[in-house]
Amino acid sequence: MSKENKDSIEKRRKFLKSMAAGSAMAIPVSAGAMGGMGGGGFGGGGSTGGGTASVTPFQVPLPIPPVLQPVSQDATTDYYEITQMEADVEIIPGTTTRIWGYNGITPGPTIVAQRGREVKVRQYNALPEHITTHLHGGHIEAASDGHPVDFVEPNNFKDYTYSNIQRATTLWYHDHAEYLTAPHVYKGLAGFYIITDDAEKSLNLPSGDKEVAFVIQDRSFNADGSFAYTGNRSGELGDTLIVNGAPQPYLEVSNTKYRFRILNGSNRREYILALSNGQQMTQIGTDGGLLPSPVNVDTIFMSPAYRSDIIIDFSQVPVGQSVVLQNLDGSGSTAEIMRFDVVRSETDTSDVPAVLSTDVVPLQESDAVVTRRFTFSMSRGNWVINGQPYDSQRIDVNPKLGTTEIWELTNRSMMNHPVHIHDIMWQVLDVNGQPPGEEYMGERDVFVVRPMSTVRVIGRFDDYTGLYVFHCHNLEHEDFAMMANFEVQP
Ligand SMILES: [Cu+2]
Question: Cα separation of 323 and 264, whole Å?
Fold first, then answer.
């Protein structure tokens, strides 16, 4: 990376240290402001974000990222290689956007892993800044977790090892570089990583071309097509919704059931998914894998980094008609995400069985050896956990391998914080003392904590010792220091 960037990171590191030490400098922050100008300063689109390119909805087909092929295989392991690089792509029709992409595309290529079979990914950095790659939701060795300061410098590479010993589910890989995660992900560094297994395959859920993964993101564009990233410390909000990198696309479907693995890959924006014809969706999975049984829902709330595995049955839609996937949390250009066009009639041979999975045992409060309390708030212009901004050299929590813990997450600010904990999956015990609603069901690695609320989660630290992080997944909150280290002790 350039000396300038290095200096600016070093400056920021020192600044955060001084904040932690209690020096009394304040930075103005427009908490709660909608898409206002923030204290950018690094990695931005280099513009004021004033001029916007406009999008006519449903003009481009939904792109499907290619499934990455291994460069080699042996008895235990599939080996992959990815080069992180800049590329010029067409997102807004007729314009060009400079992105940062895994193999030069965004979203990056999809890695499909088999449960119990190891994957090694060699990540080359052909970008102008240092990077680190995190497998979000992955239960993996600490050395491959993509710790925020485990940098891969430009023109270097790192080999990441993923054991895939967890349940079948939808994960994603994305950049996690300290102070730079938000602009790096905004520029395009995100891709799907899907773990499958025989149990899931035996269910006869919709598959093949009827199983589609898509990531919803919001971006703002300058008139020339370049990203208009401001670095807003409250979290970046874009005025254009993109799905798998295309603005408000359409997908042609048959009048059958489809399985959609949906990821909210936005920096800050939340979505409330609903179908324009009022029909229900069937949720079959969350961050950690399949639910015990399918759940019919009218709407699905998705915080940044949430995954929702759903079935939509298009047999209720006459051929020739369309259904819009709406965002009830949006308005104007952010109210419609994409459109499903039912274009053909087909016999549906798939099932959605009443029992999806029996391998999750609810953890009991009495199993927990400790309850840890964390508050999420703003202090002296930084987003902080228990009053402290992130310090990569400070170990904040030391759970013991093989033990169960309850973490009590309290939000003492006026913005939502989608709290993400690396390494293991968690179950939500309660929200403000009440049973958690549908939005918290299943095994999760992200849980939204609303203002002045407390979410209690329970999890077991199995298999791996070492250093991991937990943080807010509003990516600008993360970069502005709402993050902490935990080290699992042997
Ligand atoms: Cu936050």
Answer: 20
Whether the CB-CB separation of 192 and 240 falls below 8 Å is answered with: no
What separation in Å is there between the alpha carbon of 181 and the centre of ligand 1? 14
Ligand 1 center to residue 232 CA distance, Å?
13
> In angstroms, what CA-CA distances link 374 with 268, 311, 425, 426, 449?
21, 36, 18, 16, 11
Considering the chain, what is the average pLDDT of its residues? Answer: 91
Spatial contact of 425 and 443, defined as CB atoms under 8 Å apart: yes
Asked whether residue 53 is assigned to any structural domain, the reply reads no
Tell me: the pLDDT tens digits for 193-226?
999 999 999 999 999 999 999 999 999 999 999 9
Whether residue 49 is predicted with pLDDT greater than 60 in this model: the reply is no
Q: Are residues 338 and 383 in the same domain?
A: no
88: β partners: 98
- Asked whether residue 6 is domain-assigned, the answer is no
CA–centroid distance, 61 to ligand 1, in Å, is 33
In a domain, 35, yes or no: no
Domain span at residue 407 reads 365-488
pLDDT digits (tens, 9 = 90+) for 223-263: 999 999 999 999 999 999 999 999 999 999 999 999 999 99
Pairing of strands 454-460, 426-431: antiparallel
pTM (2 decimals)? 0.90
Is residue 113 very low, low, confident or very high in pLDDT (cuts 50, 70, 90)?
A: very high
275 DSSP β-pair partners: 325
Interval between CA 70 and ligand 1 midpoint (Å): 36
How far apart are the CA of 231 and the centre of ligand 1, in A? 14
For range 314-338, the mean pLDDT: 97
CA of 252 to the centre of ligand 1 (A): 36
CB–CB of 158/134 below 8 Å?
Answer: no
Average pLDDT over residues 413-421: 98
Find all residues with CB under 8 Å of 240, minimum gap 6, and list them: 52, 53, 55, 92, 218, 219, 220, 221, 247, 248, 333
From 165, 52, 187, select the one nearest 463 (Cα to Cα): 165
- Look at residue 350 and tell me if it is in a domain: no
- Residues 301, 379, single domain; the answer is no
Phi-psi domain of 432 (left: phi exceeds 0; alpha: psi -120 through 50; beta: other): left
Whichever domain contains 182, its CATH number is 2.60.40.420
Please state which of the ranges 47-51, 81-85, 403-407, 430-434 shows the lowest mean pLDDT.
47-51
Tell me: do 190 and 226 sit in the same domain. Answer: no
Mean pLDDT of 116-126: 98
Query: What would the two tokens of residue 184 be?
Result: 């790096």
Contact predicate 88/105, CB 8 Å? no
